[in-house]
Amino acid sequence: MPELPEVEAVRLELAPILEGAHVDQVLLRRANLRRTFPGQFDSRVAGTTVLRLRRRGKYLLADLSSGDTLIMHLGMSGSFRIEPAHHHPEPHDHVVFDLTSGRAIVFNDPRRFGVMDLIATRDVERSLRRGGLGPEPLSPAFDGAALAAGCGRTRRPIKVALLDQAIVAGIGNIYASEALHLARLSPRLPAAAIAFADRSPRPAAHRLAGAITAVLRRAVDQLTTAEGSQRFRVYDRGGAACLRRGCAGRIRRITQAGRSTYYCPVCQRRRPLAAL
DNA sequence: ATTGAGACCTGTCGGC
DNA sequence: TGCCGACAGGTCTCAA
After folding, report:
1. CATH topology of domain A144-275
2. β pairing state of A79-84 and A103-108
3. pLDDT of residue A147
4. pLDDT score at A266
């Protein structure tokens, strides 16, 4: 469940509890998590105070009083629970942070694609960048120009490019399809094509950048304001009617780079320019 | 240098 | 009911 909006919702839920909290004890309940080494990780986190809980792309970052930052990624199936101090562990509870407040933050991850790591705070941004993390879509610096720069020289289709965290951080399989539908762009459009102006008044890159921020902001809103489940424009709606006003299309599901893409073949017809 | 395929894991759901 | 394959919101690595 975790793309940028879900991770942001988790951050907003945990921040009031974690920020300023003192970590009493860390329990590593599984020895072979991907980057979380027993005896190092737990002992370096225990005894610290959480200064701030931030987010970068799909990463949650907890800055600790020790000068380290706890880097957390939910992978495909990771989640956190807030529990009272003495609770019954559930299957796949891998890490438990006991706080002196008497509460515990529990990390649960059945598929174990998640990551929990520790790195010096001053090195975090550099390290994430080096690991291939691109611009933050909800920051002012992100716009059509930034998107076009990332898409400039790839031959992949735009849907596949949007999943590349180096081009934009935080987009996953749901919101890639959602943003393309809002922008009325075909998921098969070569990514490089959006770097150039099309026939519409605004270049495609600007339209798509706007659609990305709109879709992500709206999702954060919905996930945060207890509205419950959100409705997707196209994701997981194969065979259903397109929701765009006046569009009679039916949503199609195709596979790109091994992953499902959903789109409306009628209103997302925008093709590459003949000139390209 | 890019790009696609496979690997990494467990759970769920639909079909026979 | 039970088994089986397809698929799941994400990265990694490896080989073409």
Report:
1. Helicase, Ruva Protein; domain 3 (1.10.8)
2. antiparallel
3. 96
4. 96
